[in-house]
Amino acid sequence: MPGTKSTEIDPEDYYRRYGPMVLRRCRRLLGDEQKALDAMQEVFAKVIEQRKRLQHRFPSSLLYRISTNVCLNVLRTQWAQASGADDKVLMQIAVYDEAEERLIRRDRLERIFSRERPSTRAIAVMYYVDGMTLQEVSQEVGLSLSGVRKRLRALRKRLAASKEISRES
């Protein structure tokens, strides 16, 4: 089971199992088939390059995060090339601020999802971050539509309860 092993990952297995998901993510972010294919290749090149350091937990979430970062870098590069030198400085400042904010959000998300099943985390990312429909999420994770709804409803309840607890403290 991918969520429990801590051995070195198998990039070929990841490519076979998660390649279509990564390509869909790249297509959604880049809106260009050739750029999406290039980005997908870069994602798996990073996986091969870092396979000894990567943990074999939450593979779909890991690949979504890598895909998102690769695509955002592609978009930033395009934007920077289309802009002047002054804009490049502004972009660097913006990216720095985004990086700090991302770290804060990532820490909060890690705390939120630390008690959740890996599949619940993947469901939340696909639905809330990637904007996939419940039907698309259902097909992607292999759960029924009602199962996906139930997971999201339970997650929202736990989040609401944790907010109430933190306000009382």
What is the compact description of this entry?
With 169 residues, the chain is mainly α. It has helices at residues 11-30, 33-49, 59-82, 85-113, 118-129, 134-141, 145-168. The protein has a domain at 1-82: RNA polymerase sigma factor, region 2, helix turn helix motif (Rna Polymerase Sigma Factor, Chain: A, Orthogonal Bundle).
What does this entry look like structurally?
Helices cover 79% and strands 0% of the residues. The protein starts with 10 loop residues before the first helix and ends with a helix. The chain has helices at 11-30, 33-49, 59-82, 85-113, 118-129, 134-141, 145-168. Mean pLDDT is 76; it is low at 1-6. The protein has a domain at 1-82: RNA polymerase sigma factor, region 2, helix turn helix motif (Rna Polymerase Sigma Factor, Chain: A), CATH 1.10.1740. The radius of gyration is 18 Å and the shape is globular. With 169 residues, it is mainly α. The chain has 7 helices and no strands. The longest helix is centred in the middle third of the chain and has 29 residues, at 85-113. Helix 1 (11-30) crosses helix 3.
